Amino acid sequence: MPAVDTIPSELMAALALLDPTHMMEHTRRLCAPAFVGRRVGTEGHAQATRYLVETLQAFGRKVRTQEFALTSPALELEAPLLLEQMTPDGSVARVFAHRTEFGEHPRSASHPSLFEGSVTVLPEDGLLDACQGKWVLLDAVPQGEALTTLAAQLAEHGAIGLLTPLYATADGYLVKRILAGSAVALPVLSVRADLLPTLAGTRVRARVPLVARQAQGCNVLAERGGTEGKFADAPLVIGAHYDALGDDLGGLHFPGATDNAAAVAVLLELARVLAQLDTPLRRPLVVVAFDAEEVGIQGSRALVSELKAQGKAPLMLNLDGAACLTDAVWVEPGAQTESLLQALDQAGRWLDIPLVVGNIASDQRAFLQAGFPAVGLSVGCAKIHTPADALDLVEPEALRIAATLLLGTIWQVLW
After folding, report:
1. Strand 135-137 relative to strand 210-213: parallel, antiparallel, unpaired?
2. What's 9-73+214-414's CATH class?
3. What confidence tens digit (pLDDT) does each residue in 147-184 have?
4. What would you report as the CA-atom Rg of the chain, rounded to the nearest whole angstrom?
5. Full-prediction pTM beyond 0.90?
């Protein structure tokens, strides 16, 4: 694709239709407490799904949903998590604050009733009999099967739970994790790393009422056909995930503003503008709000499976993070993405938007793993997976940059 110095007049007219106020309003709506943090499988998430469907339908395009069963469960609390430090006489010395001082571990066994025991450091000599009836404090978290093995051994020797370190963010939060791993043999709590040593030799009481939910996910798609037969089975897919981590039961609200409500707002504004352009498309277009990204990019995997079954070979652009201005837009390219990268580069030069290669762990990787050309984009996000990821972090200029860069790229691919 040869470089063109002047922005085509048709594209200039389309860019003029973009409105950051629309994008800020969509972001605000998606972050509202009524959507309860948009965790897959919740009623708040279902309300967010309906909002996306109704908004896209208002643009006059064909909208459908793709429901799928989660293959990996999402972690959920059935009651508030509890961790208390006890005095020698059995009264409560300290109640630890959920999400700032301790939190659930994604591989913990569930223990919904109160249970209590003294805390001992994991014996260096490997003699585990001293752990009977006690919480075992670890100074580091074993990974993978090592944690499974250690928990099983400690359970055999009568230990009642594990206490593991977790470092806080600059805002003082412990990041939330909802992708449930295979449960180990004991309850596991993550304690802020600087507080964990203070528990050694004391007694603690806890409640760990966790459940791994096999929820239903729901992608939301707006589709438009193309005119050229050679592209009939090669649609352009533009995506952003709308699910987030969900609010803490009886606790903190997780707006998920920069991860990833702002990007979904950009997606909705692009859908609105594209619906106003009457020029026929060369290839089909699929605008998709992905679900279940936060539990292992399961929504994009579901769409990839459907497209493969239909014999389709899509091109894909994915936006994860469209809220915070940085020095340049991050781009994660994949194999066979030269045409997409050339279009992005041209759009960046037209619009004076610098691009750099960056690491973006998001839905485009499901397409890449299936052998489809896909590129991930991120303008920027902040304080993700914490309650601090809120609307006040979202910058209208970042939304504008994301929307103009994508529209400039899409225009080249479709027209």
Report:
1. unpaired
2. alpha beta
3. 999 999 999 999 999 999 999 999 999 999 999 999 99
4. 24
5. yes
